[in-house]
Specification:
By secondary structure, this protein is an alpha/beta fold. It has two domains: 2-38 and 303-411, Aspartate Aminotransferase, domain 1, CATH 3.90.1150; 46-300, Aspartate Aminotransferase, domain 2. It is built from 13 helices and 19 strands. Strands 6-12-11-10-9-7-8 form a seven-stranded mixed sheet, sandwiched between helices. It has a four-stranded antiparallel sheet with strand order 15-16-19-18, covered by helices on one side. Strand 3 (24-25) and strand 4 (28-29) form a beta hairpin. The longest helix has 21 residues, at 66-86. 44% of the residues are buried. It binds 4'-deoxy-4'-aminopyridoxal-5'-phosphate. 4'-deoxy-4'-aminopyridoxal-5'-phosphate is lined by residues 37, 99-101, 129, 131-132, 177, 181, 206, 208-209, 229, 370.
Length: 412
């Protein structure tokens, strides 16, 4: 155990829970600094999924035999666990999808096409991931709606005054990220929803970068939709969640048709299943739901307060160490940040930096990070980004600092 500065205890051997981290890349110990793109998976998640395939797999809902019943119970339990994790009112409000991207597409397709008309407006921010821009652009193009964009302050915080001024009688939705995947900025979602609701406008929150780092309580945030991906929170790829307030979801039409989402099918007409099945056509990602359940158990065993304290301490350490490197420039200096640091170093192209660091076993990300409007607004062709997870350590930061000095030397 190590006692962190907040007096919270965190196991020192968390790194050991992640088998993938125990390897060399190009002869050097792997330093994984790309958790914002996808986190690594603890043994507990891998084993839960393997156990399911070795003992319990069958298709859910359809069977009257033991294996199918077992798989159905496990899948239902995963939904209940997600409900608890984000404090939804009901498991009916938890729709399993492929990930954040699919969740937003579902909302745009079903809610958007049924509610928006020509001349209506959608508010997004300049810091959105493409997943929270493009589906709204597609919707806007198909119904004749317009998109309004909240700008940022020089710190990387949202310009909240500007946000409040964007509403008009035609505003129909606010779609905003909880935490930026480039700047790390954590947005004041409670304030954002309060302002939107004063105008009777619902809010969709992209929680992809928030759920691994913050305690999320959808009732407290009072958001109307909340979306996230399991693979960024130590769970598997291929599954994510669309949370929606029950009344909203009930009024929304299904977006995909097929098995499992129906009540009755005949050639004279089809009726749909109640929530959540109405939005889950076809065989779902069963093992992945079980993996997500295990990931939530893993996170909660360590505890979100301990995770947040660990990441805050690591961010403080990284800021000091990296800030000492001549030519290092932080992009995004908001006070409230998750464990994400975007940066430039001298005028070295981030791709060159990433390639040279990889030779030392250090994995960082470089480019536009699926946030082209944001990176372009910074006047940069690309930025480098490091991001932390539960398993990240001071030693990773030390290796990065050493690696960046080596990059400077190679490219001097
Ligand atoms: N939103 C944000 C803020 C993200 O960081 C990401 C992933 N980089 C996404 C949406 C898309 O998530 P996924 O690819 O899992 O659908």
């Amino acid at each position: 155990m190590c006692v962190l500065q907040w007096g919270i205890r965190m196991r020192l051997d968390i790194h050991k829970d992640f088998p993938i981290l125990d390897q060399n890349i190009h002869g050097r110990p792997l330093v994984y600094l790309d958790s914002a793109a996808s986190s690594q998976k603890p043994k507990a998640v891998i084993e839960a999924m393997t156990h399911y395939y070795e003992h319990d797999h069958a298709n859910i809902h359809r069977g009257i035999y033991t294996l199918s019943e077992r798989a159905t119970v496990l899948h239902d339990q995963a939904r209940d666990r997600v409900k608890q994790f984000i404090n939804a009112k009901s498991s009916a409000e938890i729709i399993f999808v492929r990930g954040t991207t699919e969740a937003i597409n579902l909302a745009a397709h079903s809610y958007g096409r049924s509610q928006l008309r020509a001349g209506d407006e959608i508010i997004v921010s300049v810091m959105e991931h493409h997943a929270n821009i493009v589906p709204w652009q597609m919707l806007a193009a198909s119904v004749g709606a317009h998109i309004k964009v909240i700008p940022l302050l020089p710190t990387g915080d949202l310009d909240m005054e500007n946000y409040a001024s964007l509403f008009s009688p035609r505003t129909r939705l606010v779609a905003i990220t909880h935490a930026s995947n480039v700047l790390g900025t954590v947005n004041p979602i409670k304030k954002i929803t309060a302002i939107a609701h004063a105008h009777h406008v619902p809010v969709l929150v992209d929680g992809a970068q928030a759920v691994p780092h913050l305690s999320v309580d959808v009732q407290d945030l009072d958001c109307d939709f909340y979306v996230f991906s399991a693979h960024k929170m130590y769970g598997p790829t291929g599954i994510g969640v669309l949370y929606g307030k029950q009344a909203l979801l009930e009024n929304m039409p299904p977006w995909q048709g097929g098995g499992d989402m129906i009540a009755q099918v005949s050639f004279s007409g089809t009726t749909y299943a109640p929530l959540p099945a109405k939005f889950e056509a076809g065989t779902p990602a069963i093992a992945e739901a079980i993996g997500l359940h295990a990931a939530i158990d893993y996170i909660e065993t360590i505890g979100m307060p301990a995770i947040m304290a660990h990441e805050a301490a690591l961010m403080a350490y990284a800021k000091t160490r990296l800030g000492d490197i001549p030519g290092f420039r932080f992009i995004g200096m908001a006070k409230e940040k998750v464990g994400v640091i975007a940066f430039t170093l001298d005028d070295i192209h981030p791709h060159d930096m990433g390639t040279i660091l990889d030779r030392s076993g250090i994995a960082i990300r470089a480019g536009h990070h699926c946030a082209m409007p944001l990176v372009m607004s910074l006047g940069l062709p690309a930025v480098a980004r490091v991001s932390f997870g539960i398993y990240s350590r001071r030693a990773d930061v030390d290796a990065l600092v050493k690696g960046l000095y080596a990059v400077k030397k190679v490219l001097a």
